[in-house]
Design a protein that fits this description.
about 260 residues, alpha/beta, globular, SGNH/GDSL hydrolase family protein
């Protein structure tokens, strides 16, 4: 694999992970690892262009239908594709269909760019997420196969103990916080062949034990503010991304 290529343009494709939830900026918008990576690439390449087509809540079929065509048409040097996690975390999921759609997305995007980046998505360690690991391992094995077949870069975030640590995740337990996104940006930066600026997988210090009352209070708040609304959207067929446009729908010069 050729690394340390000079990239003049970058298109990010995916769901909330790539949109940047929950790396909040002071104005209430989200930044995220893709924006951080674009900023670092832009600092080395005058005229660098960036688009982020990712929208929260999107399933892999929606990503294929709504994002891969526009992304392929942009002809960017670098494309990242992360999707399928929203599918496999649902109670009922046809993992074979998810893998087939991911393959379709890769086959559309790989011929249009110098470098395609795929990821084994991170997950917040805990008993709930562990229930879905068999599905994830099947999805990740297909991602590895597609990476080898299309000479794509595969970044393994799932194996990281530090990124999976609950302290790297927002209170909704579904999205990385600012430090989590910073580490993902560094991981992709290094996977592209650039000199490390930090150890993205550096172990965290030992966690301070949390008392039973504090844990239960956190669980109740999580259920009320996040889990309940999530279940409500599933039951009514709604998505957090319904009607939402990408934050960077066109491949334009990067602006911080």
């Amino acid at each position: 694999m050729q690394t340390n290529i000079t990239y003049s343009s970058f298109v990010a494709v995916g769901d909330s992970f790539t949109e940047g939830m929950s790396d909040r900026l002071p104005d209430g918008t989200y930044r995220g690892w893709a924006d951080l990576l674009a900023g670092r690439l832009a600092a080395r390449n005058p005229g660098f262009r960036y688009a982020n087509l990712a929208v929260r809540g999107k399933l892999i079929g929606q990503i294929v239908e709504e994002q891969t065509g526009p992304a392929a048409a942009m002809g960017a040097d670098l494309v990242t594709l992360v999707g399928g996690l929203n599918d496999v975390l649902r109670p009922k999921c046809d993992v074979g269909r998810v893998c087939a759609l991911l393959e379709e997305a890769v086959e559309r995007l790989a011929p249009t760019c110098k470098r395609l980046v795929l990821m084994r998505s991170p997950g917040r360690r805990g008993p709930v997420f562990a229930r879905f690991e068999p599905r994830l391992e099947r999805l990740f094995s297909v991602i590895d196969e597609l990476g080898a077949r299309h000479d794509a870069t595969v970044v393994d975030l799932f194996a990281s103990q530090s990124v999976g640590d609950p302290r790297m995740w927002d209170e909704d337990r579904l999205h990385l916080n600012a430090e989590g996104h910073r580490r993902v940006a560094e991981a992709v930066w290094q996977a592209l062949g650039h000199e490390p600026e930090a150890d993205w997988d550096a172990p965290l210090p030992p966690a301070v034990p949390v008392g039973w009352i504090a844990r239960r209070t956190s669980d109740v708040r999580f259920a009320r503010q996040h889990l309940g609304p999530w279940i409500g959207r599933r039951l009514t067929g709604r998505s957090s991304g319904d009607g939402r446009a990408p934050k960077r729908a066109e491949l334009l010069p990067y602006e911080d």
